[in-house]
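Data availability (excerpt). The following record was deposited with the supplementary files.
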Amino acid sequence: ETAGSIFGGEIVYFLLNLRDFQLANGEQHKSYLAMIMGHGGKKSITALLTNVRLICKNTINQALAEGNKLFKKKHTKNVEQNVIDELAIIAAANNKSEEFAVVANKLPNVAMSLDDANKLTKSLYEGDSTRASNTRDEILELFRRGKGNNGKTLWDWVNGVTEYVDHYANTRVTSGKIAFIS
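Predicted structure:
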């Protein structure tokens, strides 16, 4: 799917498209196997299953924080001998991708009212601050009118949250974890 490097080749990545599939609502989706490795002597070789398309430092950090890590190996002189392990990882990643497709295909068929979306959003972004309230309002608006959404299903809500996190939330990445500051 894609490959590249950042920081002058210090970190190299490639992304293998495991599968394209169509959800029940017609939306297209992709699952990837990502391999991320460092050439500065400090980063392990990491394989993970992700739905994030790697193109830059931010998407690499997002995939590392959210992805399903399959393995992490120190970059030693003998690492090449573990190619058989990597093939097993690809098979495992494909199975996880199948599991995601099954779950994702059910979500467009689960009806969700605005009231239910509001309750779920409040459980995700708790608090009485103006910031929390504004965040909830924005997610609910994206649930109703976000890209491809009609505000009627659990998939619309998931897409609303995803659109908010991907395009509107302020984020901070520390120690491989993403904190949403919105």
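Summary of structural features: Residues 83-106 form the longest helix (24 residues).
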